[in-house]
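REQUEST FORM: STRUCTURE PREDICTION
Request ID: SP-0412
Submitted by: Lab K.M.
Chain count: 1
Length (residues): 169
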Amino acid sequence: MKNFILAISVLSVMILLSNCSDKDSKVIVEIPDSNFKAYLIENFDTNKDGNISLSEVKAVKVIDCSDRDIKDLNGIEKFENLERLICSNNELNELNLIYNKKLNWLDCRNNVYGLKVNFAKSSPISNKNFQKPNENMTPEIAANLGNPIDVTKCLFDEGKTDFVIWFEQ
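STATUS: Completed
RESULT:
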């Protein structure tokens, strides 16, 4: 009888633990831009259900969604482990990266003129230990830097994209 009770207890704990770890796979991340969603499904939909779950998002460290006619990267805030984002040659107006606190490299060249990018103060990109903006930076860009930023980690084409950086308050 003791073995039976022990087996039932172990089985109950295993079921409970499997339900807890499976919870993230049931939470679907909302991605409003159909082109961005198509890219994510093509590259990160590991269970092939046509959606991106929170557990799939947590595994992503690099996104290269260049040349996809993406207008909106809403949903990117759920990618908490994202370290590298390449979103060049799209139609982005604004890029809010304040929740991507591990992001340490960004390429957002050739998007809409006046592209605004918001970083978290705790992001490696906005770390105060990084170099200050260089002398050749346009006044518009330099004026919008709340903190020093390592511009070598942010690629942009000054001739085509007015790249504005700001930081969460």
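NOTES: The two ends are 62 Å apart (CA to CA).
Reviewed by: T.R.
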